[in-house]
Protein 1
Amino acid sequence: MKLSTLGGLALATALAATGVSAAGHDPVKVGMITTLSGGGAGLGIDVRDGFMLALKQSGSDAIEVVIEDDQRKPDVAVQLADKLIQSDKVDVLTGIIWSNLAMAVVPSATAQGKFYLSPNAGPSALAGKGCHPNYFNVAWQNDNLHEAAGAYANDAGFANSFILAPNYPAGQDALTGYKRFYKGDLAGEVFTQLGQTDYAAEIAQIRASGADSIFFFLPGGMGISFLKQYADSGVEIPVVGPAFSFDQGILQAVGAAALGVKNTSQWSKDLDNEANKVFVAAFQAEYGRLPSLYASQGYDTANLLLSAVAKADVNDADAFRAALKEADFASTRGDFAFGSNNHPIQDIYVREVIQEGEIFTNKIVATGLTDHSDVYAAECQM
Amino acid sequence: MSWLLLIEQVLNGLQLGVMLFVMAAGLTLVFGVMGLINLAHGSLYMIGAFAAAAVAGATGSFLLALIAALGAAAAAGALVEIIVIRRLYGRDHLDQVLATFALILIFSEGVRWAFGSFPLFLDIPSYLSGPVSLPGGILYPAYRLAIIGIGLAVALGLWALISHTRLGVQIRAGEADREMIAALGVDISKLYTVVFALGAALAGLAGALVGAIQSVQVGMGEPVLILAFVVIVIGGIGSIKGAFVGALLVGLTDTLGGFLLPQLFALFMEPSAAGAVGSALASMAIYLLMAVVLIVRPAGLYGEPA
């Protein structure tokens, strides 16, 4: 009797306590704008699934997410951001995959006092002069993986690269990043159309160029098309690229054409740390497929947000910003910190495409760049 | 720049052109015979590619995959014609655009629901993989040569069908005067279904052929659809011959423009700026071509002046 009274009392106190905390802290409202339909949908779905997996694992009800599909269209993304800010009254925005969409949404969202956590796009304009205290990039600055690819090309002894990327902000950042670290000559430099599916003309130029290596940045379906057509063309020049062209989502569609290709990534499923092991196993159990780097970025973004929510109230912007900046969460990448421009300082690895049974995937073969930041941080005044 | 490279680029342009023709032929037939703007033509292309990928995955046979693509796209086309399109013939073009746009969304989400959001694997068959050596020492992928061959065969077949068969007579009559051929006892609604299914099958064939060298994914049809519309506008709406000439023009302009324009600008600019300006201009090249054709011949190259 006495025991049960005690128990009841404890329960009542606990209830009262949660009641108080719930009244004091409404859940943090997160607006996720990402690409869930059309050609780039695989990337957005991976980010979303990674993000939601981290929330589910935390068991926390401190975060409420509104998910919207931007269809990879900048105008749609802008409308969604207005809607999320004005009618859903979100505190934090996240989710955008493509740099041209990020450029359309992020500056106005941060100017309105919202926080933006980027799980993917990291255009140079937002890392340098256009940086903002409320903008945190949890993935990379766009140039980073390409810089590592340039460094790898030097190590591999390549001296005459043919480079190509789509003509949009991230594509331009890609070629700039590669050229920043790569010391050899260029056999050719080509900008393709965003969403282009036929690369016969470019492959013919590569064949005629006398290059000793190819660097390309073609995310999503563009990379699938290029690799299949390249494998079929009979040109046998070694290929390097960033992980975007070799992520888990597209390797199955490329098949054996990608085997042996070297690519650079800040994450890989075989990275040896506790958080990553838990993530890879949980992602497979939850969704029945292997995670991609996009999924790991979504997962890290959610965990960063959870760490900040646990420390500070989102309505106290200064405290919340400081809590985000600490980056006090267990990243799937191991060591992770924010630089002065709120972009990551992290290791970037060289991976090789391998076959495990029926599945094509990546394994780490070397560390490309250690504790790598970006060159734009110096231009950032905040 | 060598001659070999230029010839290879011309072949690439031809290959793109004949594929666009296979795509545009159905579009222009449907417009010519039924007066219908069918935005969902790109979805039929996607259905062909997905059917081919599914069958190739299950059986390993590329030939069966092509047959499945033809069958699935024709079936989807016939079904759509009977259920939806048939109600649109009497309406104005805006209603047709709205309804067929809705079909794009339905097909895209339906395919996503059935196959998932991630691209499927469809590879070229081993007997067509790798390059072949052409006279003059050009290495060119065998599969792309096969695509050129298939495209030309389709063009020839369509020409024979339209000018030498009873169905062709009915199609031409339907283009000229649909009330009259209905009055002459031709079952016009059956004719429409057949024409629509034929156009759909061609789109499905194009999707399967192209899917093997590109990525089979939801939304793959829409960029091609835009090019196909450019083709039929240039060629003259309703004209198969116009679609053929227009497709080759667009294919060659797109490929050679993307290849030559950056080189042209590189003569007086630094390479990376020339690349950016040249490729920006190259992506406009086909639309400039369309504008010029429309200024000179407002009804298109082979169109009947309205």
Note: Residues 3-218 of chain B form one domain.
Protein 2
Amino acid sequence: MTRARALLIVPLAVFVGIVVLLYSGFGLGRADLHPSALIDKPFPDFELPTLAGEPPRRSRDDLVGEVRLVNVWATWCPTCAAEHDELARITGETGIGIVGVNYKDDPNAARAWLAERGDPYLFHIIDARGDLGVDLGVYGAPETFIVDAAGVIRFKQVGAVTADTWRDSMAPVVASLQAAAP
Amino acid sequence: MTGRTVLGITALCIAATLASAASLVDAYDFDNPALEARYRTLIAELRCPKCLNVNIAGSDAPIASDLRRAVRRMLEEGRSDQEILAHLQDRYGDFILYNPPLSPATVLLWATPAILVLVGLLVLRRLGSRRDAVELTEDERARLDALGAEDP
């Protein structure tokens, strides 16, 4: 009889267990939802108009050759404005070239945005419809890729590049890739 | 409320639901009905990366619209369903598939129903064996007979 009574607690224990499990899920970040997508795969081919207009178009060939950052951004994206100064600091201090992908944006607004905040990028390509975005597995902005000298994607940062993410996760990758490059 | 009013309101609700469902999906014209059928199946199987639990057929998020356009483009390029799913899985991970492959990360997802059925069977067996063990006393049997006799 005592055993039967002890068994009565089982459903309650299971319920509490599920509540704890689900509640702890609230604390998990969403950044790791798409962990391995396109890592160690070549950067997709593209041939897109530039924001500067000169040269009128850029392709994948303009990207490869050196370790680069590719930053997907837009004027409608508040986080992009927040990370802008950090990107400027990174390229100023390390000399790494940053290629901008102006993602589903109004090109005129984008040019005005850059005129106001400064333009630390090598160049910007215009992905007006988000087709390159789909090829890159982009599902929001900003996203920042580290692309090695051979044009292979080595790292993907979803969300803002901050001083912490740069120091802790991105700078070491860039350093090892630059050391490996001839 | 009369039956007629209820009927009218129900019809309105259904019409509104259908209208909103239809407006979510871009009006893509396919020349080929087979291609269109494959398109509908694929966009129902692909999960919107931005919205956690909606397929790209049912989401009006911009990214879902981009993905529908990508699926359509690849279909028209003559790619197979497998190639299209693999292409998007490479970019968006297993997350994008509503029918995820068996992998160490998803093994629990696939095994849990079988485990639950097994546990259920075990519980049923135990309950069954316990019931068999119940012996009625003479008194109880007499009462049972009396109750049974009252049944028509």
Note: Chain B has two domains: 27-100, 102-152.
Protein 3
Amino acid sequence: MSYKPIDAIAHATPDPIANKVRGLSDRAIAWIFVAPSIFLLLAVNIFPLIWTIRLSFTNFRVNRPNNDVEWVGLRNYERILNDADIWNTMQATAHFLLWTIVLQVLIGFALAYLINKKFKGNDMWTTIIVFPMMLSPAVVGNFWTFLYQPQIGLFNYVIGFLTGADPSSFSMIGDTHLAPWAIVIVDTWMWTPFVMLICLAGLRSIPDSIYEAAECDRASKWRQFWTITIPMALPFLMLAVLFRGIENFKMFDLVVQLTGGGPGSITTLTSIDLKREAFEKWRTGYSSAYAVILFVTVFGLASIYVKALNKVKER
Amino acid sequence: MKKNLLASTASMCLALAVSSPVLADGHGVDLTLCWAAWDPANALVELSRDFEEQSGHNMNFEFVPWPNFADRMLNELNSGGGLCDLMIGDSQWIGGGAEQGHYVQLNDFFDANGISMDDFIPATVTGYSEWPKGTPNYWALPAFGDVVGWTYRRDWFEREDIRAAFSAEYGRELGVPQTLDELRDIAQFFQGREIDGTTVYGAAIYTERGSEGITMGVTNALYNYGFEYENPDQPYDLEGFVNSEGAIAGLEFYRDLYETATPPGSSNWYMGENIDAYKSGQVAMQMNFAFIWPGVNADPNVGGDRSGYFPNPAGPAGQFAQLGGQGISVVSYSDNQDAALEYIQWFAQPEVQARWWELGGYSALNAVVEDPDFASSQPYAQTFLDSMAIVKDFWADPAYAELLLAMQARVHNYVVAGEGTAEEALDGLVGDWVEVFEDEGKL
């Protein structure tokens, strides 16, 4: 048996310490490694969650630290669920979520399908397409307010040019019918490249041999698309939907910059409303209840969705 | 060993001296003044250099852009933060600042140093310093008088072709509007008109949704049509005052002005957007706080004789204007309260206030504004005086933020989004405000 320097180090370990380490089980050592992460998780995620749930049953206001905190039971939840304005923000959020996801998945998949074909300048086009998602949402929101300007905005000019309408005759962010679509358009412009990249990863993971086998069986391109491409890329598509769904449920900066939640409250999404309740009105107890309701909603929907995703992956 | 001990003691002392707020001469401290990031703040930096020279203190400034100013600074105060020694906070913060212990009460300090609130414009004392309102409890020194007023394109108003067209359409001379109805007529007249080959619009008004914009704008119509915040004889009695017939008519007026006489796309405009629209020659008139007037006057495109200024015109129930401006307070969480009070004592001096006005700051000191030369010192000086004489302010209760957000939503929903009627909007506002006051235990 050869004598290595590591053995020398091991032998140099003082006996009391060596005995102690030798006495630890694998499980104990595993806990030592995992404990800091668990501690952080408890401190940063679990404790605030439990604290928020506790606050949601009180009338606590963080800007009135000297006031008595009263236990109000389910009153905050009752007020939220009976508040028509909050249901309106839920509706605005649902509209935003639905249409951004539909458009981003359709356009993103189409772009990925095109980019996946080998052609000259492929890399350059990929870089150009991906460019919007590299920008800050606040910056995007800000410069789209200029693009949407009826008098000087490029967007209005292009629409006017294509339709013959007067560019200053409509305001994308000032009209209650157009504003919900204005935020959908900007989010789609910004995040479709992200969906495209995920779809591209999915398309590139499909082995060529499957298509070759289908060619041998004389399957048409259309048939190949529906029976090979879509089923095999579906887990990736569903993952993209999950990511975008979670991201857009908490959408804040882009919409605040674009519309400030207006006109009226038509683009006030739940995250904007929650921020106003918590950090402008300082209704901490009330906003905690609001946050708990949103958490349960997102958690419930995401759990169902992840189960469906796993089933698709198992197929 | 002894040498080492001496050396380490010396280096510790040096480190403490460097890290301590007390400056090397043993007298001056680092003072931080918090305010909004805008033109007057730059003037204050310039003005404060004299204070630094005289006192030996070092002034630092924390300026936050207006849209985030309240969020940032109220967070700072609510968390008991020590960032700011001096706070030039908005007038509506005074109730919260006093009741929640953020500000130091200044009565004893004023008495000891011969600073009298009788020496300041009464509306600014009520608006910026007193809490509860109407009582001699002072929490701030009036620092910057401000009020909503109007700027107009005097060069357009004086053009013969435009005057003739206006006269033909309305049967009267084109001039500075005396009433809100006249203002609307003029704005509608300019709306979509071609001037020197460019399409221009009537007026830029406040419509911003996110912070306080539309409320600061619409109140200029509401007050003048008869809106009251509460029953003057019974505090927090809102029904019939907030939603009186006059108030409903005032809200309808503002919506009509927005729909018929403002630039397309001006659905979320506040101070900055209005300035841009005016300076770029898009509008004939702009509503804005008076702080912008020095900038307009100096502007190469619209400054000098090309612009004029007028107070908010009268309505059927009188002539009022929305108060802006701020007082300067000492933050109770500051470790440098003595030095902060020194700054206030210095700032209150008549000669410093006169210099403040020269630099573009709106002094609220009577000695400055009542000086015989004041009205002619700047083209907008008389309009400032006239406007400060007709001010009204929004709620300054500790719950002002909730009251403000409710009004923002209700008014924007009606004026910009066009939802429901003015009556429904104001009835809804009464409901929202009653709920806030019930939560506050005031009803």
Note: DSSP finds 19 helices and twelve strands in chain B.
Protein 4
Amino acid sequence: MSRERRAKRDSRNERAVSDRGERSARSASSGKRVATDGGTDSDIERAIRETHPALIAYITAGDPTLEETKAYVEALDRGGADLIELGLPFSEPIAEGPTIQAAINRSLEAGTTPDSFFELVDGLDVEAPLLVMTYYNMILQYGSEPAVEPFVERAAAAGLAGIIVPDLPAEESEPLREACENHGLDLVFIVAPTTDGERLETIMSQVSGFAYVQARLGTTGARADVSGATHDSLARLSEYSVPKAVGFGVSEGDHAAEIVEAGADGVIVGSALVDLIAEADEPAAALEAKAEELKRGAMRGAEDVPEPEQP
Amino acid sequence: MSDSDRDNETSFGSYGGQYVPEALMPALEELEDAYERYVLENEDGFMDDFRARMREFGGRPTPLQRADRLSERYDREVYLKREDLVHGGAHKLNNALGQVLLAKYMGKERIIAETGAGQHGTATAMAAAHLDMPCEIYMGRTDVNRQRPNVYRMRMNGSDVNPVDTGRGTLKEAINATLRDWSKSVETTHYVIGSVVGPHPFPKMVRDFQSVIGTEAREQIQEQAGRLPDSVLACAGGGSNTMGTFHAFVPDEDVGLYAVEAGGSTLEIDEERGIAPNSATLSTGTDGVLHGAMTKLLQSGDGQIMESHSVSAGLDYAGVGPELSYLVDIGRVTPVSVGDEAALEAFHRLSRLEGIIPALESSHALGYLERAAGPAADSASGQGPRAEADEDLGDLVVVNVSGRGDKDLETVLEETEKRDLEAAPDVEVFDR
């Protein structure tokens, strides 16, 4: 399944590169941060490097129903999302702001379960690799005994490429990391504005796929500007080779441009998309258009990155 | 540090741990450091300062009182640990004052806390006023509406009260909201968690601040009765009075420790609607992760947290402290449960027989005493007749009266009217 997705994406990337024109093709082969697939066997890392700068889109699965989620995922894929995170709802989403809390409530009220979530993913046919974002208890409780293996096995079978768990810090991650390694999934870690020193090194030694750079303290939610913490965090991470994607508060193409210009390999957008699902007259069309805007913004940011000096 | 060393430090067997967003981890490290230095090592005389304030401001030590008429009724020696006499009317101040003082020593500028019924919120607001710290309390909208006097008490002590509109608007949502505030304000703010729950080091630290209950009781019972008790009873919601009472007795293997949970209306759960009409987490829960810790939970098979229920708001929580889960697993603590009705009977009984109006939470512990030792063994006064009582409590029993029941009068009046309670007084004096 994931191999098929990869093949589809590869063909799309060729198109994308030719569409983007000369300047961006040049930028995409010019620097330390981009270009060659360094022999990674991570679908996610590869997708980010090949589509650089990547747009990572989050929506809550089952908001308002799983059928609609399918249409929205396809719209985001058409609009240019290079990776798509699907939220599997948990009743106590402590890392989320009001927008995503409300989406999670809608999804739970619609009866979304881990099994119906996996069935949705089984049936998705899009080019962008898919990740699941959920809380640790949902992973633990899948299957008959509290353990992480059954969830990861099912996620792999559904073709998911990675997992993000907002309430699982590196210290508690060993069982899930091992299961992910066994099943060829990436486990994405969040780097917070408060993360530095030894903690940062520990996390960066365990991360796979990409480092999720939390742009600001607090919860998820669309904001009107890009935080200063984003620039600081990207500077702290510049020596690490794993791709960096920035999320928490990103809502507009201009934000995406600024973040990529500051050195990010990707931008993560969630609440702004969830808002469209809740409010737009035609959410699928609105999501596609928003994804296009964000992807254009990210690419504009990449163009503005100064060329490294030739030796 | 090896992984197993770390496990021993941050968990109790397989329970506990630190399941929180990365943004909070540096704050937990800072708190661990402060806990070790100030609480465990008494740096800068922190614990001396704390104990002096608990004496002068908090009214400690509290008495261990022989309950003469209960002793007669149950044909054994019954002693009550009177935490209802702590300033504020409950054991909650032991922890709240400890943590607000610790925040002060750590140089934090602001206090936040969650509260369910308002007991922890009012204790934290008192401590914050006493120590001149700005304080904000998160409280579910439902609880705000049904606990107006407590909201007013917090406001009078100068704390802000932030109603939480999500979910059912009770304790679980209040904790979620406080964690969200903390993930934004963590650099300047200390989160005074209200029970032995949450990520390490909270369960150990809160237990240590509360352990004064059992430490005093253990000395007092030996002085007054000449020996250690056969059993110790305490109610268990999150478990702070439970662990506070039990901690000193854990090494005394001959002392039975009974954690009395809220049986609510029934122990049956309604999985479809996600409702547990009880809060009997230790008795019926399964292992999972909530609010930063691996512990026993009331949850659906998928892992969604259930809405719990109890007539006693202070026990109404779908989780429980991880150390209690551990002590139950290794067989050191016996979990039992008492339903709403038996708790209400016990509330009225203690008021009538001993002149002490207990909190509805504490009434659960007293309700279990009636069930296990009561003369009306075959009546419907408990959830089951005496023959079904789980254990023999022995000849010398200590019950922790964790708080006083003045706060519960409205609930008790309302709930008593719905039922035909043996021990309830006649209130026909009111003109209806």
Note: The first helix of chain B runs from residue 3 to 10.
